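Input sequence (121 aa), recorded before submission:
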Amino acid sequence: QVQLIESGGGLVQPGGSLTLSCTAFTHTSTPYTYALGWFRQAPGKKREFVASIWWSGPAGYFADAVKGRFDITRDNAKNTVTLEMNNVKPDDTGVYYCAAGGDITQDPAYWGQGTQVTVSS
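Predicted structure, token format:
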């Protein structure tokens, strides 16, 4: 069983930056080896893939909507994954969910509870 806890959400102005973090809580002392990623869901819309990174890293995979603006990193020793959001737009608004394992870009095995990101002036 894996518990994913997100943090770092909040209100940010268009063009600004925001960093989200996720920590994977397990019952092992070894680094978490599942692929990690992020999804988001805007009000009234389906949940969509944002970014992912493999256990071995280091490069991330990104949805077209965020390419060139977002970055994803992970620290296996700390069981954390970070989403750095730059030059944000109002369309980036939504609940951001940390995800792990499974088909990481389409059907992850584990989900966090989500953290709200609001891009507004």
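Checked by second reader. The two ends are 40 Å apart (CA to CA).
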